[in-house]
Design a protein that fits this description.
Layout: H1 8-17, E1 25-31, H2 37-51, E2 57-63, H3 67-72, E3 79-82, E4 89-92, H4 99-112, H5 119-124, E5 132-138, H6 145-158, E6 163-169, H7 174-180, E7 187-190, E8 193-196, H8 202-209, H9 216-222, H10 229-232, E9 234-240, H11 244-255, E10 260-264, H12 289-300, E11 305-308, E12 312-318, E13 321-326, E14 329-338, E15 342-344, H13 352-355, E16 360-361, H14 364-367, E17 376-380, H15 384-396, E18 399-403, H16 413-421, E19 425-427, E20 430-436, E21 443-448, E22 454-458, E23 461-464, E24 468-470, H17 473-478, E25 501-503, H18 514-534
Parallel strand pairs: 1-2, 4-6, 5-6, 9-10, 9-14, 10-11, 14-25, 16-23, 17-18, 17-23, 18-19
Antiparallel strand pairs: 1-3, 3-4, 5-7, 7-8, 12-13, 13-14, 15-24, 20-21, 21-22
Helix pairs in contact: 4-6, 11-12, 11-18, 15-16
Length: 535
């Protein structure tokens, strides 16, 4: 990472973050001539530059095959070890792009001896009394991967005697990705067993290391005195979901004087965080989805607490208040905003479940990097997401084909123009009827709806973008009125069928646009303020 890549803003953040450092942190870099040399040079540059920001960061440089590599069992280049005399934290491959964030926070955790888990979760790790090796497969463009990596690093810091963490860059180690079937990220293995092919809530990750323990809520209920102080506080409003709707609701709630918290079970940002480029958000001709989310999160954090990795298990009404039972404790609230968004719709055809994560993906931003060097990929769908994914993958260098079930595309004209200008192959009026492969995806079986002809095509990867389904599990659990398609019904002020419960964003149906989500988040927060003022 040349010095020019560390922008003034990034340098300022590093200096501020490293004020938390306590103990020295050794960063051991291992390279090997002729092996991943480009990435090795980047890693050497990255560590060299990071070390300039604080004298407590001690870089050391080695070659695979020397005494140090033998002592620590390093066989691949590049490899980075974090304080190897104290912890078992390893990056197999240079932590590029999004993964750079996990390295910075990993350095801070190694220095302070504290992970990112709340105290009850960290305490549960004390039950780990046997060796646990955690492998997390990541890519440079995956916005969910740093959080998964931080789970593993936190566990290794909290329980260094038994837990080791290895963060594996799939593009730099394609043989490992192939061996483990990790063609989709993040993918988490514990002692060689796949435990998650997505970013799980923090408690699910801890469960994979310390199974058979009582649930967090049961433990908290039995011993309320051990709950962290901030978890026992009552908020005016609890916002469930950290996408644009939830973050906007947090801003407006805070500005109205309401004490608010945002609970997000995975990664803040929702679908926007994995959108490569946003070109229809007012004020920006073009902006990366992750960059837009980061700006929203930065602003929202000025007005509300934002808790990542905290999943909501239930909401109970007790007299005039709510209890929000989560994987990280119990939150009291006077009002609730549910903004849980939507999830990818599946095709539900033979081979899809078996090969999901083994060549089939629902996130081009997360997994496209593996196919960048001319590999053959198919994008399935005809809307904005599908065309955006096709353009993104083509820009990476993949050989892209689009499969549309109709003879037209529903995407915006600007996106369609970009697609047609690149002369990508399109199969019109075509359905994918089967995904074929043994250990990974090899072929697609297609049916033409006009002439009923069939064909099989060879592919390295398939990206499914056929729309979304509402993430309505919580809404169903608490009994909100839903439409026939499963979306939460609201009035024009985002009020639901339960007083003081509001819904906003993709969960409510309609146009799935960022502008609609932020609008509804605004209205939901203002409605909550008005209703609470009158109560």
């Amino acid at each position: 990472m040349p010095e020019a890549i560390i922008t003034p803003d990034a340098a300022k953040s590093l200096k501020e973050g490293f004020k938390q450092l306590r103990d020295e942190v050794e960063l051991h870099v291992f390279t090997k001539p002729g092996v991943n040399e480009q990435f090795s040079q980047i890693l050497v540059g990255l560590v060299t530059e990071i070390a300039k920001f604080d004298k407590r960061i001690k870089p050391e440089f080695h070659q695979v095959g020397d005494e140090a590599s033998g002592r620590y069992g390093v066989e691949r280049a590049p490899t980075l070890l974090v304080s190897p005399a104290k912890y078992k934290i390893r990056y197999t491959g240079a932590p590029l792009g999004e993964e750079g964030r996990s390295l910075i926070l990993g350095i801070i955790m190694a220095s302070t001896g504290r992970g990112i888990f709340d105290r009850p979760l960290a305490k549960r790790l004390e039950g780990v009394n046997e060796s646990k090796n955690v492998k997390v497969f990541v890519s440079p463009t995956c916005p969910y991967c740093p959080q998964a990596a931080l789970y593993a690093i936190s566990a290794a810091v909290e329980r260094p005697e038994f837990i080791s963490a290895e963060i594996i860059e799939i593009y730099e180690n394609p043989d490992l990705a192939e061996k483990y079937g990790a063609m989709s990220v993040p993918r988490i293995f514990v002692n060689e067993e796949l435990t998650a092919h997505y970013l799980p809530p923090a408690d699910e990750f801890v469960d994979s290391l310390a199974p058979g323990k009582e649930t967090l809520f049961a433990k908290e209920a039995a011993a309320p005195e051990e709950k962290p102080a901030e978890e026992t506080a009552t908020f005016d409003i609890v916002i469930v979901g950290g996408g644009p709707a939830g973050l906007t609701a947090a801003i407006y709630a805070g500005r109205s004087g309401l004490k608010a918290v945002v609970l997000e079970k995975a990664n803040v940002g929702g679908q926007v965080a994995i959108t490569p480029i946003v070109e229809n958000y007012p004020g920006f001709l073009s902006v990366g989805g992750k960059s837009l989310v980061d700006m929203m999160m930065s602003q929202a954090s000025q007005y509300a607490k934002i808790k990542q990795g905290v999943g909501v298990k239930d909401i109970r009404k007790i007299d005039s208040r709510f209890e929000v039972i989560t994987t990280g404790g119990v939150y009291g609230a006077r009002a609730i905003v549910i903004a849980t968004g939507a999830t990818y719709r599946r095709l539900n055809v033979p081979g899809e479940e078996k090969l999901s994560g083994r060549g089939i993906s629902y996130c081009a931003t997360c997994d496209g990097y593996l196919f960048k060097d001319g590999k053959s990929v198919v994008v399935i769908g005809g809307g904005n997401t599908a065309v955006t994914d096709a353009l993104y993958l083509d820009g990476l260098g993949a050989h892209v084909t689009l499969v549309s079930r109709t003879d037209t595309l529903k995407a915006e004209d600007r996106l369609k123009q970009g697609l047609f200008q690149r002369n990508l192959l399109i199969y019109w009026n075509t359905l994918v009827t089967e995904f074929i492969g043994e250990r990974r995806l090899e072929k697609l079986k297609l049916k033409n709806l006009k002439d009923n002809s069939w064909r099989e095509i060879k592919v390295d990867g398939a990206f499914i973008a056929v729309g979304y389904e509402p993430s309505n599990e919580l809404a169903k659990m608490i009994g909100l009125s839903l439409s026939g398609e499963g979306y939460v019904k609201t009035d024009d002020r985002q009020r639901t069928s339960i007083p003081f419960v509001y819904a906003a964003g993709d969960l409510t149906g309609g146009e799935k646009q960022i502008t609609v989500a932020v609008s509804q988040g605004t209205v939901a927060a203002m409605s909550a303020f008005e209703d609470l003022t009158k109560a």
